Amino acid sequence: MHKGAPMKMPRKKVSFSTIKRLMSYITHYKLQFSLVLVAIILSTAAGVAGSLFLKILIDDYIEPLLLDANPLFSGLFTAIVIMGGIYMVGILATLFYNRVMVVIAQGVLKKIRDEMFAHMQMLPIKYFDTHSHGDIMSHYTNDTDTLRQMISQSIPQMFSAVITIVAVFFAMLYMSVWLTLFVLIFIFFQLQVTKSIVGKSGKYFVKQQAALGKVNGYIEEMINGQKVVKVFCRERQAEEDFDRLNDALCEHATAANKFANILMPIMANLGNLQYVLLAIVGGALAISGLPNISLAGSGTLTLGMIASFLNLSKNFSQPISQVSNQFNMVVMALAGAERIFKLMDKESETDNGYVTLVNAKYEEGVLTETKKNTDLWAWKHPHRDGTVTYTELKGEVRFYNVDFGYAEDKTVLNNITLYAEPSQKLAFVGATGAGKTTITNLINRFYDIADGKIRYDGIDIKKIKKDDLRHSLGVVLQDVNLFTGTVMENIRYGKLDATDNEVYEAARLANADDFIRRLPDGYNMVLQGNGGSLSQGQRQLISIARAAVADPPVMILDEATSSIDTRTETIVQKGMDSLMQGRTVFIIAHRLSSVQNSDAIIVLEQGRIIERGNHEKLIAEKGKYYQLYTGAFELE
Fold this sequence. Notes:
Blueprint: H1 16-26, H2 30-67, H3 74-121, H4 125-130, H5 133-175, H6 177-224, H7 226-231, H8 235-288, E1 292-294, E2 297-299, H9 303-344, E3 356-363, E4 366-369, E5 377-382, E6 388-392, E7 397-404, E8 413-420, E9 425-430, H10 436-443, E10 451-456, E11 459-460, H11 466-471, E12 473-476, E13 485-486, H12 487-492, H13 500-509, H14 513-517, E14 526-527, H15 536-550, E15 554-558, H16 566-580, E16 584-588, E17 600-605, E18 608-613, H17 615-621, H18 624-630
Parallel strand pairs: 9-16, 9-17, 12-15, 15-16
Antiparallel strand pairs: 1-2, 3-4, 3-5, 5-6, 7-8, 7-10, 10-11, 13-14, 17-18
Helix pairs in contact: 2-3, 2-5, 2-9, 3-5, 3-9, 5-6, 5-9, 6-8, 6-9, 8-9, 13-15, 15-16, 17-18
């Protein structure tokens, strides 16, 4: 193994609750599963009947024909046809239940993926900030694939094996108690071998799934950061880190599959050994003339009985080998299921808000609710006495003594008190880590404050439903995310019911219309790979247009022009000014040229507000902003 600390995974057994929960999904297909059980019983019955019929075939047809001078084969032919019909029923039943189990498996996986994805949409931003995206993706790929194999293959095989073992056991007792006792003693020895091997492999399958998630997470991280890796010539370091994770995966997978892969050959050879020893014991009992005791009574052990019993013993030991082999698959699948359910059990983003955002209009000076889009919004505030009041959405945001930290032991914002009047343009300036983006994260409630209050149009934002709160905010992030689809669809993402003309107008406002029309298919050009075919500036312009089409009363611009060159920024800034007209705007910027015309500039340092005022006021005070502006002190 490559040097470095090996990845240690805690030993953990799959809980019974995981099995019970997984079975609850399968029970949605009660009718299909009932038919599967019937088909498995038919298949098993056909196998046992075929083995029992072998005794009749040998003792009643083949053996008498050997002593007959003029044998007639018509009876033998009829018996063979009957035997063939029995096996055909078994074949058709096996084909049926395997096909139905595939349908059940895919249906269960679809439901699990749907529920997992739906729940993932309800998780707080904190979850995605603290978990590798590749590891999350592994839940949808590797973990669900292990479930597919278990449901479509392992479960029917194990059910079939159990039914076969019970049926064959009674069939063997019907044939011979002595030979059955010999088989049971030998099977007990096989089970001890199986228990030893499976016990060693099961724990490694759990570790393997966890290690696989870590490897996938690292690969996803490296793919996203490949340019950074190459720029800093860290290919070798990336390889070494991957080797360490991959070695850990290899170690756990090797340990798990080493035991799993030797199990089947060992069981198969033990089954062959049993077959040989059983033939010797059966022959010895027949020659010795020892009375054969069975459920049918006592008698002589015949050649047909021995041949039939040998076939039954094969059918008895084979399912045990199958169960042993499938057990490893089940353990691995349950480990994957436990990871999936762990994601699904993560606490959803809490929302105790009850104030909603509605379309409004004034009737005789009174603000009322309407279903029509009036470009006037209001907060609908229900009261305990059943009455409802409406507050016009103006975009006034105020912080009162707000404290916040991403971790309990580390405060990021300290005693933040600020205000933004309606239609006011507020800019945050400060070094990296000063808390600028954190403030905007608190406004849209990606995170909730530890202490203090934030009021939006006089309403505590904790009382506003998160969906409605965020619907009133337009956000342009520094990191642009474009989705697979046309340029128009990506802009329309800000307002799904926007008309084509509204999309064109938003693009013109963001100064994106000109370059979009020069694209090969214009607004209908399909973007893939997060818009990799476009420049960073073009992608940012589309992101700005997306916010513009939403036409929100409050805008948050988090380094919105950081990826645009200075010349383009000047042009875009004019469009941005038009976009910001009549709205409350929060701007985060390192380029001080983009915030000079702000109504108020707030300077942050180590999570505290140290200065506030417009450009002229702060320059006259010759404080930290003055130092930043004149270059006496540069932003980190």
